[in-house]
Amino acid sequence: MTRFDGRCHCGAVRFSVETDLAQVISCNCSICSRHGLLLSFVPAERFTLTAGEEALKDYRFNTMRIRHRFCGQCGVEPFAEGAMPDGSPMRAVNVRCLDGVDLAGLTLTPFDGRNLR
């Protein structure tokens, strides 16, 4: 595991996360494709919001199970909150918001969220 710092575009929302980036999801659902999200799913205990709770806004759609968190100032979605299949709390971190990550060096795992029913 590596510790990464991350933030939204304007820096109002900041966080740290421990992940190995071994599996970075590229989902084609309507929200991920429109936002250009690349996601790393981690247990909630490996994620720490360090600044900006007051700047965060929420968006839920479809099944309403995922709480998409975005900065009310710049509009960037640095992470989402939800549950793993076993019910344990998780965070879906937008890898594009992590400092120092070479996106070209990542191996992306496609996920067909568009046709998930």
TrEMBL record:
SUPFAM superfamilies: Mss4-like. Coiled coil: none annotated. Keywords: Metal-binding, Zinc. Residues 4-112 form the CENP-V/GFA domain. It comes from the Bacteria. Belongs to the Gfa family. This is GFA family protein. It comes from Chelatococcus albus.
